[in-house]
Amino acid sequence: MKYKMIVVLLLAAFIAPSLARAAEQEEPTIYVIKKGDTLWGLSERFLKDPQYWPAMWASNSQITNPHLIYPGQKVRVFPDHLEFVPKESKGQMASAAQKAAVAGKTPDVFHEVAEEKTFTVRGSEGFLMETDIKPFGSVIGINHDRIVAGEDDIVFTDIGAIHGAKGGEKFTVFRKDVSVSHPLTNEIMGSKVVPLGTLQLTDVEQKASRAIITKSYKEISPGCYLMPQRSEKRREVVLKMPTRELKGYIIETNSGTNIIAAGDVVYIDLGSSQGAEPGNMLYIVRDVTLDQRYVEGRVDRLPQELLGALVILETGKKTATALVVKSIDAIYKGDKIVSRTK
Question: 190, 217, 234: which is the final residue of a domain?
Fold first, then answer.
């Protein structure tokens, strides 16, 4: 009997501290939202995974837009996930404070500000050349009658002084690809453009010019088109809340693939004329079919299926180039994009 009692006491001595440690590990740390915080930054800082944020706003009904988190909001920080603390009434806050005082401890609170998330536009993402936009000129030949050119090679263009061109001007070199029609209306939205590189005019004559290839993503050949280059530097796009409600569709992909995932560049049917701006983040959703046999007229629609999210990198008048930043499920051309989920 004494032996059994000793064994029980030894087990209790080992198990009790382990249980205490486990309970201590499960107790979340509380983080208070500060000015400048974003779900991107919080996910990257605490979970080392900036792509976690869609799961965060999908599981927190009070967060309808990841841009709309406010100073003073509280987040429970667990080892593998984050939770927003529901807003408490004054009575609940007082009760919580009393319990904490009785327990003799207060939650740990972080005061750092998470960095704002930005995205880099490299210039090789491509775009849709809308029907009312025409190329400025084209490459009409390559030095020594070569078929293809690359970086530092000399080429000739049909851009001259008569067109207002001057030595030193830079142009983007691109190839027009297939025409893109809207997946629902069949309206021709424009031609897919494949960026090939950049060139700089060196000698300008009346109707033609000599130029040097300053950068090449792919081989450049006679017949390639030219457009004035806005900037040779990479540009940073910062997340920006849309100024109006946006609704549209994914109409094409940069790679031409049918199944779209995170990291893919896509083209959408929203542009500056609809209020879309670089940095706007939109949710990718799909309507769920309602079987009328079982609803008996009580339900008219189901919540949309959340597929992922994209960020607009560059806008045209009616279209835009965007980067898919999260894919929860397979995404396809024709899937809906919205600024607010239902």
Answer: 234
